[in-house]
Design the sequence.
């Protein structure tokens, strides 16, 4: 059989795709090291915009936004991972129960509903129940849409664990709880960790929903960047974007490595 | 003294299907007891119900007189060697072996000492700190055995533990398992579909098929005096001949063989059509024999020869002969007279 490489136009199509996907990222990364104040004129290599991010006139605003983003991401990822782990146990180990299919759809719904719809619906909901928009509402919204992202790697991992490990633990005098903590949880750990990291990144990156439910005066890094860009793109934005790109890439790589290590020794 | 395990009218249903129909069985203390049958016969279900992984649908399971049917697996003094060993992959070999003792609350020093002794018993002391994945299949098997024996269970359950090993290792492990059972004095309940395994190790064997117990007895009982067609056919090789029961005396029946010869066999039956089971090695070519059969083929098996013959009524008959240089081989197409050894023919119940 002919490999995919031999189809006519394969190379050209590949190059077009790669260019469309990554050229903007390359431009942003390259220009974050630009020495000039222009965003189009190259003025030599420099770290000045990185320095500007941490010490410049907007540094206080970005610092606060970054802290909000990080704490929300950690809390949302942790809560979503706990819920997703419990959901995985019920779905994968709970046998057949009524509403199982419905539960599965419900868990994964945030993946299918357009984000703008979730954003508007969340805002209307928070207003209706009388919650003041702010840090709390962002956190609740983030936990909600992070659950399916945490659920996928955790349930995939759990499905790969044969039930006889828990049976062996129970057979050797472990209670249900200890069979879970001593045997099942350590075996699930790679899935749980990569689920947490994925949820963390999704929360860190989110703009649309956050922008709707954040309320006045509250900023996360993406909304702060957006606010700043509205007044014209300055090179410091490119430096922040590059830092976020690096952080995301690092977390995703870590998640992938942990999952791969877990697969090698089930 | 109470039996180690008594299974009393136990039924197991999965939804609408009945996996096990009213099973009653008693297993003595210190016995090597085997549940033998083809896959899907319910033997593993029996084991899982004794271990506590499956609830019984009806009936009682008694362990030394105490009904354990309602107890969860961690409250039954019974341990299992799983088919795929189920060693905990994230724990070292010694931690695996000590796991049961740890869950029972034995302190660290005592459980490490006991686990070390168990590893010594299965000749794996040098591997104590390794992870299970670093061991061969045979070594993992022995760790699983040590782990299940470490908490000193009253009964050890073994679910086809040898099926994943290669032939040589399997044969060596049979002897080791039997020795271990005798040394520890623990009741072993062994599940297998391999009749050779069952025959070589067991004190008694329960043959199962389609959720029913077919026969219980020693290896010799079930091989020499199978009760029914399934047992005769499943254990070893046999010839099943259609016969007519013509006359019945006190404890024997006179049967008409295919081709006209007559024979008296032990056991009684209602007059009419029945099945006679005769093992191939209990048939001998003999000019005075009552069976006349045409030789179709000779199959060479090394130590033995199989003579594949056909009786006049069309039914096949296999005769097993020792491969000896002295005996001249009959040629294909020749009609042989075949004798049945004294007491070798069994009249089957169905």
Sequence:
């Amino acid at each position: 059989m002919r490999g995919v490489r031999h189809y006519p136009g394969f190379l050209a199509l590949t190059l077009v795709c790669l260019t469309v996907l990554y050229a903007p990222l390359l431009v942003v990364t390259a220009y974050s090291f630009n020495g000039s104040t222009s965003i189009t004129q190259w003025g030599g290599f420099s770290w000045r915009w990185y320095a500007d991010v941490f010490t410049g006139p907007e540094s206080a605003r970005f610092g606060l936004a970054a802290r909000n983003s990080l704490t929300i991401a950690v809390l949302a990822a942790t809560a979503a991972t706990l819920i997703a782990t419990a959901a995985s146990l019920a779905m994968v180990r709970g046998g057949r129960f009524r509403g199982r299919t419905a539960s599965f759809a419900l868990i994964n719904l945030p993946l299918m509903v357009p984000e703008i719809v979730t954003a508007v619906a969340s805002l209307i909901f928070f207003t209706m129940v009388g919650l003041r928009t702010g840090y709390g509402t962002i956190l609740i919204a983030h936990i909600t849409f992070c659950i399916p992202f945490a659920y996928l790697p955790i349930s995939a991992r759990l499905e790969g664990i044969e039930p006889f490990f828990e049976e062996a633990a129970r057979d050797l005098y472990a209670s249900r709880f200890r069979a879970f903590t001593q045997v099942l949880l350590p075996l699930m750990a790679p899935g749980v960790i990569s689920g947490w990291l994925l949820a963390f990144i999704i929360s860190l990156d989110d703009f649309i929903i956050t922008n709707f439910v954040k309320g006045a005066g509250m900023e996360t890094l993406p909304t702060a960047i957006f606010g700043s860009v509205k007044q014209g793109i300055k090179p410091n934005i490119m430096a922040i974007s590059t830092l976020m790109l690096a952080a995301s890439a690092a977390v995703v790589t870590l998640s992938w490595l942990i999952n791969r290590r877990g697969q090698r020794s089930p | 003294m109470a039996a180690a395990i008594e299974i009393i009218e136990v039924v197991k249903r999965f939804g609408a299907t009945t996996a096990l129909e009213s099973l009653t069985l008693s297993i003595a203390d210190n016995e090597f007891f085997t549940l033998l049958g083809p896959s899907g016969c319910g033997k593993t279900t029996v084991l899982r119900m004794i271990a506590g992984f499956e609830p019984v649908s009806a009936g009682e399971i008694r362990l030394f007189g105490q009904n354990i049917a309602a107890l969860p697996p961690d409250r039954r003094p019974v341990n299992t060697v799983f088919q795929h060993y189920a060693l905990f992959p994230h724990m070292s070999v010694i931690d695996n072996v000590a796991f049961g003792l740890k869950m029972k609350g034995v302190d660290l020093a005592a459980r490490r000492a006991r686990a070390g002794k168990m590893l010594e018993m299965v000749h794996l002391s040098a591997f104590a700190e390794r992870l299970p994945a670093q061991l061969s299949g045979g070594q993992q098997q022995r760790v699983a055995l040590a782990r299940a024996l470490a908490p000193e269970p009253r009964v050890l359950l073994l679910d086809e533990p040898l099926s994943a090993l290669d032939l040589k290792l399997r044969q060596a492990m049979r002897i080791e398992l039997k020795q271990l059972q005798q040394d520890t004095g623990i009741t072993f309940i062994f599940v297998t579909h391999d009749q050779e395994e069952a025959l070589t190790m067991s004190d008694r064997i329960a043959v199962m098929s389609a959720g029913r117990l077919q026969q219980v007895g020693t290896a010799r009982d079930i091989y020499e005096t199978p009760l029914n067609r399934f047992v005769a056919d499943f254990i070893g090789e046999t010839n099943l001949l259609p016969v007519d029961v013509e006359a019945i005396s006190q404890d024997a029946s006179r049967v008409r063989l295919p081709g006209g010869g007559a024979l008296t066999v032990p056991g009684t039956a209602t007059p009419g059509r029945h099945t006679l089971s005769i093992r191939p090695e209990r048939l001998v070519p003999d000019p005075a024999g009552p069976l006349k059969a045409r030789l179709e083929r000779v199959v060479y098996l090394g130590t033995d020869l199989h003579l594949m013959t056909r009786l006049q009524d069309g039914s096949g008959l296999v005769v097993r002969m020792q491969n000896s240089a002295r005996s001249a081989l009959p040629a294909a197409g020749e009609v042989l007279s075949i004798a049945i050894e004294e007491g070798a023919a069994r009249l089957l119940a169905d």
In short: Chain A has a mean pLDDT of 90.
